[in-house]
Amino acid sequence: MNFNRLNLILAGVLSGFCLVLLVTACNNSDKSGNSSTSKTKNDSTSTTANPTSTPVSTTDTSTMGTRTNAVKRVAKVTITPPTMDKSAAMKTDDKGYYNYTETAPAFRGGQNSLENYITNNIEYPSDAMDNNAEGTVYVMFTIDENGKVGNAKTTGTKIGYGLEEEAIKVVNGMTNWTPGMNKGKKVKGWYTLPITYKLEE
């Protein structure tokens, strides 16, 4: 009877000991797993924060140093006061416009204002620039007794490439001039404006 009881006690102790060993093993396994996870996480963070490769710029530099410095063409437009041939007889055409007047018509503000207007409003045609076209275009137009500009056209040899058309467009866009005068009276007459196109490097 006592022997059986002793066996039961030993069996209980052994069971408890095995249970302790099992719990200890499980705890060690969890710690090992957490350590591995933590290490993996830290390694991942470390890789992200300190990448082993530096991003490369996408700028294509393969052609750098091979380009030649392009010469920029500068389009310049100037005007010169017309010279009136007063050796010819003063007369009018069939519409009453004088070929010239005693007192020439004037752009409001004078010559400087006229030059500024032309410079700020005229465009050197790209077709003319591409073909190196330059020269002087003579725009002939009327100024009536109220100073209104009209009937613009070009005279002389045509240069082409849009130079004449651009000059006419700018002249037609002018505001009123101070009209020419004969014997102190405002009259309508013709006026010729030389506009010079020139390309510079």
Fold and architecture overview:
It is elongated, with a radius of gyration of 48 Å. A hairpin with a 5-residue loop joins strand 2 (135-143) and strand 3 (149-155). The protein is of the alpha+beta class and 201 residues long. The model is unreliable at 31-72 (pLDDT under 50). It folds into two domains: 1-30; 74-200, TonB (TolA/TonB C-terminal domain). The chain has helices spanning 2-49, 111-121, 126-130, 163-172; strands at 74-79, 135-143, 149-155, 181-182, 185-186, 189-200. The protein contains four helices and six strands, in the order H-E-H-H-E-E-H-E-E-E. The strands form two sheets. It has a four-stranded antiparallel sheet with strand order 1-6-2-3, with helices on one face. A two-stranded antiparallel sheet has the order 4-5. 37% of the residues lie in helices and 19% in strands.
List strands and helices in order, with pairings.
Elements: H1 2-49, E1 74-79, H2 111-121, H3 126-130, E2 135-143, E3 149-155, H4 163-172, E4 181-182, E5 185-186, E6 189-200
Antiparallel strand pairs: 1-6, 2-3, 2-6, 4-5
